[in-house]
Write a structure and sequence with these properties.
Outer membrane efflux proteins (OEP), elongated, mainly beta, 5 strands
Length: about 120
């Protein structure tokens, strides 16, 4: 899928963000059964909070909680399915190493610092 994500700096290393995207979904069985394989298109809307902090001079870490609502329509030539919806809460973490002298500003991942 393709998601667009907008971060808004709140305080210190805390950010809020919203995201929206378009997704393609495939479902299939790993063992032989009567259930058909399905595929379909859908969209996702979500948002969350992310806290970023320094570990070493060029290493950042982040912890985030992300809530998303995904709607998709799955079909098969023999058996179309009704519209499906998934809601999930995702809690994760990441590490990032920045090479060189330019380092992103704290709390604003993806933007570069100004000298």
């Amino acid at each position: 899928g393709l998601d667009l994500k907008y971060h808004l700096h709140l305080v210190l290393g805390l950010e809020g963000y919203g995201r929206a995207g378009l997704h393609k979904t495939w479902l299939s069985q790993s063992v032989q059964s009567e259930m058909a394989a399905y595929q379909g298109d859908g969209h996702v809307l979500g948002g969350g909070l992310q806290y970023t902090f320094d570990i070493l001079p060029r290493v950042d870490a982040a912890v985030w909680a992300d809530y998303s609502h995904q709607v998709f329509e799955l079909d098969d030539a023999a058996a179309p399915l009704p519209l499906a919806e998934i809601e999930k809460l995702h809690i994760a973490r990441t590490l990032r190493y920045t090479e060189g002298s330019k380092r992103p500003r704290r709390g604003c991942w993806g933007s570069t610092s100004r000298p």
